[in-house]
Amino acid sequence: xxxxxxxxxxxxxxxxxxxxxxxxxxxxxxxxxxxxxxxxxxxxxxxxxxxxxxxxxxxxxxxxxxxxxxxxxxxxxxxxxxxxxxxxxxxxxxxxxxxxxxxxxxxxxxxxxxxxxxxxxxxxxxxxxxxxxxxxxxxxxxxxxxxxxxxxxxxxxxxxxxxxxxxxxxxxxxxxxxxxxxxxxxxxxxxxxxxxxxxxxxxxxxxxxxxxxxxxxxxxxxxxxxxxxxxxxxxxxxxxxxxxxxxxxxxxxxxxxxxxxxxxxxxxxxxxxxxxxxxxxxxxxxxxxxxxxxxxxxxxxxxxxxxxxxxxxxxxxxxxxxxxxxxxxxxxxxxxxxxxxxxxxxxxxxxxxxxxxxxxxxxxxxxxxxxxxxxxxxxxxxxxxxxxxxxxxxxxxxxxxxxxxxxxxxxxxxxxx
Length: 417
Prior knowledge:
The protein is α/β, with parallel strands linked by helices. It contains 15 helices and 10 strands. The protein has a 7-stranded mixed beta sheet with strand order 2-3-6-8-7-9-10, with helices on both faces. The protein has a 3-stranded mixed beta sheet with strand order 1-5-4. The protein starts with 33 loop residues before the first helix and ends in a 23-residue tail after the last helix.
């Protein structure tokens, strides 16, 4: 250029491989070892190394792009992974290489700095998709449980101030498309086309690069909180308690009483702590699927529709109003949910804190046995949430409590109250 600045870099379309040599090689999903499987590379610093569709960090990849555009982040920046290894070992477990067991996450994703150290030293930009650390957590409900005598502080797992020592993990989604299609009983071609069309053509490789079998979708991932020894989760001689929980920002964070999400989460943590205290382990699997994966905007629209319908908000029309606004009652697709349990090495759950038949059926269908199922105690249900609870019970959700005789009589508050 006349001003001496280098010319802008040409945009290289990724929809066709061209003549580029793929140094990273093909990913052999469900191979028995990390080296046989190979690294998953979704970074853009070395395009020739990429062996996936999409990029790392799920929905946060868009913020990374914004940081690059704003000049706050160098496009070719690579992380220093020194001392980032897991704070507690997880795996490997047999489920990692059992065909069809894990299709929506990379089981080796937390061990990148260890198992692919040679590749990293050679300059390959391989990023972890899972991180494992330790922390203390606390919820006011735990102090209530201590005061009520349901929990007793032991100074190891549960402190007197309500703090719980946990091992926690964050998981970014990594979708193996052939396995995902098989899990849903559809063809890989149909899956790829729907993903391409329903994202407005965001990822052309979905329909032009059949050689790329792995997709890093821009969606939320999974958070896991383990109470007790993580090794107990895969030990058949020790008890395991589990609550699989789907995100609900309004209730989980802000305490909205229109649903049972936060009370159920707190109850699940309480059961997990009690199980850990007798030598077992408890695990909370928290899926980022706000509003049944319909999104918070849709969820709030449904709330309005429920509260404004003739006759008011009633248990009789609970699911119907959701479907009128969203087109479906639920898009969480629990088919993928057991993958996190397989990653942890779980084969049996002694106490499943859930009344969802969808969750239970998918866990069992994936070869994990379940002992006791636990619904939320009636005294923990907020007043306005009885609409949701009675509707679910009438729909066949697991419960020890009787179903209301007249669903139309189970009413929630008006919008103005």
